[in-house]
Specification:
By secondary structure, the chain is of the alpha/beta class. Helix content is 39%, strand content 15%. It is built from 13 helices and 13 strands. A seven-stranded mixed sheet has the order 2-9-8-7-6-3-5, with helices on both faces. It has a four-stranded mixed sheet with strand order 1-11-13-10, sandwiched between helices. A two-stranded antiparallel ribbon has the order 4-12. α2 runs parallel beside α10, α3 packs parallel to α4 and α11 packs parallel to α13. The longest helix has 20 residues. The chain is globular. The C terminus is likely disordered.
Length: 388
């Protein structure tokens, strides 16, 4: 595996941060923003905070947090079976994915399949664990089963992310049979990434299959407070799995990280107990604002049923050159399809969890940059030579 490089997104953010006196419009983050006046306090008012930095927490997680997560899964995911023995606290969703992939590699899994596109961080975690990845044209319907069966000719990880980043596709009731059928196979392990599961706006929302995970060792769920509770700085995630899987993962987490930050875990207890209704409604409002303000934008189209972002096709052949052009001429920082694999031409990820005013400014700026791009025949100022 080649040495990792800074992403195109991070390179553009670094440029903006190196020029702090300039007015930048940053539209890169798919972590939803709490509405003004609704953001919860940064720290949970709990006496245990004072002593948290001076001791290790249990490797499986602080008991108050595992208890809160069980309650959350009962309420949000309609679970009847989950208890504390099915929960493992991690240092964020990506840590949960990496930890699980390393464990599966240790069990002999060397292949992973996933939908198109997939976040590059997930792909790179697969490769870092020694697992080769393959993108498939999955549809999120029962038709996927035949294709997935044909691909699982050796121990195979099936990575499923619903609601999907970045397309916003959601779990549909008919897909539960696909997941259950795959999870029953001894040579398949389904990794179900549910880090956006609060943001399913479909009329027939299908909860994350927590009870399938706790009863079937062939399926494991990863989740996070970053997206679902708008708290990426806490770096708190969790795994939901059958008890035997948790028993195997806890020692791995112990020797990799000992335990997870105790103060952050207590903050997560407060955040989860408080709930995220205002945050979910803010994203709903952002989706409505997009429909209002995107009229006339070529990329405008029907909204996906879920997620905290839109996967917009700007109709630009070289989206990386356009993003550099927009950065230099319009002070606009965008997330392009280079953040995903395989790279799909012309696409950007546009956030819906932002205030309506920022939404309006962002859409106007994109429209102006596109018009400028056409007028200048794609010739911007600045050096685009290292765009990737």
């Amino acid at each position: 595996m080649t040495a990792p490089e800074l992403s195109a997104l991070q390179r553009r953010l670094n440029i903006a941060e190196s020029r702090p006196g300039e007015d930048w419009l940053v539209l890169v983050e798919n972590v939803p923003e709490w509405p003004e006046g609704a953001r919860p306090p940064a720290e949970a008012p709990h006496a245990a905070h004072a002593g948290a930095p001076f001791s290790y927490e249990a490797s499986q997680g602080h008991p108050r947090l595992t208890e809160a997560l069980v309650k959350r899964e009962h309420e949000v995911s309609a679970s009847r079976l989950a208890d504390e023995s099915h929960i493992l606290v991690t240092a964020g969703g990506m840590h949960a994915i990496g930890l699980l992939l390393r464990d599966l590699a240790g069990q002999g899994y060397r292949k992973a399949v996933h939908a198109t596109p997939v976040f590059c961080g997930v792909r790179d975690s697969m490769r870092a664990a020694g697992i080769r990845n393959k993108a498939l044209p999955l549809t999120g319907t029962s038709d996927d089963l035949a294709l997935l069966r044909s691909e699982c000719t050796e121990p195979t990880v099936v990575y499923v992310n619903l609601p999907h980043n970045p397309t916003g596709e959601v779990l549909r009731p008919g897909y539960l049979d696909v997941l259950a059928t795959l999870a029953e196979r001894p040579d398949v392990h389904v990794v179900y990434d549910a880090v956006y599961d609060s943001f399913d706006f479909g009329p027939d929302r299908c909860p994350t299959p927590v009870d399938l995970a706790v009863s079937e060792p062939g399926l494991t769920i990863v989740n996070s407070v970053s997206k679902n509770y708008g708290r990426p700085g806490d770096r708190i995630g969790w795994i939901v799995a059958a008890e035997e899987n948790i028993r195997r993962l806890v020692p791995r987490l112990e020797w990799e990280a000992v335990s997870i930050n105790g103060r952050a875990q207590l903050d997560a207890v407060a955040a989860i107990s408080r709930g995220n209704t205002e945050l979910v409604e803010a994203v709903r409002a952002g989706r409505a604002a997009y429909l209002t303000h995107s009229r006339g934008l070529a990329a405008a189209g029907p909204l996906p049923l879920g997620g905290t972002q839109l996967w917009l096709d700007l109709g630009v052949e070289d989206i990386e050159r356009f993003a550099d052009f927009a950065l230099e001429r319009h002070h606009l920082v965008l997330t392009t399809s280079a953040n995903y694999a395989p790279v799909l031409p012309g696409r950007i990820r546009f956030p819906t969890g932002v205030p309506a005013q920022l939404m309006r400014r962002g859409l106007t700026a994109i429209h102006q940059a596109l018009e400028d791009w056409k007028t200048n025949d794609g010739k911007g100022t600045g050096d685009h030579g290292d765009s990737r």
